[in-house]
Design goal:
Pfam families: APH. By secondary structure, the protein is an alpha+beta fold. The protein contains 8 helices and 9 strands.
């Protein structure tokens, strides 16, 4: 069902393209992917960002709706860190306040980032894990981890003997709130401004260390020290084993995601890096089994 937030109650609730939004003043296109187009602009005297869903795939339609729900949850129960204010939402159009800053990098595996940026990203994820979301879509498990583990093992993406350690580490975890997609492209950073994560389409409850494990995976491709820092923070918080379990699962997912790319692009170096990383991660998981 289409709904709008209170600040746009006079706008027809079936406006699903930014071009049909009354009083919309377009600005620069910020990003285009195979699922959405993000554009800056002004609406009703405010600097805003419009996200237009272009994919009809069920998965991305569901993720888009989840992101709208996340912004509504933030509006009802403001977290202790800055988030853009929701201005308008329908089934395929989302408009949020434009906050200062720009993405540190748009690559999935970014080159070496400035140390203050890495620190700010880690601090932001640590802050997410300390927040208790209100009852609703953000307070439930982000996915069925046991089912995913079994699916990966059945598909041959994980060794059979690691399935039980993963289940023990993840299934019993006391879940914490997480962003779920802490890409550098999903962050806003700038001189004199607090780093802010946006794009909450995967936000929800995760095992402790899940966000850090994912950030460490992406940054660690070109900055191994960043991954070491993420692991150290997880260890200091008593969740190193769960961090390593999630690192195994995230790496298995990366291999699955990149499989089609390997079929099209001769990228032996990255394939080898992923293979080496998951082998090391499985060894680390076995080493820490039962510690936390």
């Amino acid at each position: 069902m289409h709904e709008t937030v209170s600040s746009s109650s006079q706008v027809s609730a079936d406006v699903d393209t930014v071009d049909h939004l009354p009083d919309w003043q377009p600005g620069e296109q910020l990003r285009r992917t195979d699922k959405a187009v993000t554009t800056a602009g002004r609406w009703r005297g405010r600097d805003v960002v419009a996200k237009q869903l272009t994919s009809s795939e069920r998965h991305w339609v569901k993720r888009f709706a989840h992101e709208v729900s996340a912004y509504r949850a933030f509006e009802a129960t403001p977290p202790p860190w800055p988030v853009p204010q929701l201005q308008y939402a329908s089934q395929r159009l989302l408009i949020i306040e434009r906050l200062p800053g720009a993405s540190p990098n748009t690559d999935r595996y970014p080159p070496l980032l400035a140390e203050p940026t890495v620190t700010a990203m880690i601090d932001a994820l640590t802050g997410f894990a300390a927040w208790q979301p209100p009852p609703g879509p953000l307070s439930v498990p982000a996915t069925d981890w046991p089912a995913r583990i079994r699916r990966y093992a059945a598909a041959g993406d994980l060794p059979n003997d690691v399935q039980q350690p993963l289940l023990e580490a993840v299934a019993s975890a006391p879940l914490v709130f997480g962003h779920g997609d802490p890409l550098a492209s999903n962050a806003l950073a700038g001189a004199g401004h607090t780093l802010i994560f946006i794009d909450f389409e995967f936000a929800g409850m995760y095992p402790p260390g899940a966000d850090l494990a994912l950030l460490g995976l992406w940054l660690g491709r070109h900055d191994p020290r960043a991954e070491q820092r993420c692991a150290q923070i997880a260890e200091a918080g008593g969740s190193l084993h769960r961090y390593r379990a999630m690192r195994v699962l995230w790496l298995a997912r990366e291999q699955r995601l990149y499989q089609t790319l390997f079929d099209m692009v001769d990228d032996h170096e990255h394939r080898q890096w992923l293979d080496d990383q998951i082998a090391d991660a499985i060894t680390g998981l076995r080493r820490t089994a039962g510690r936390d």
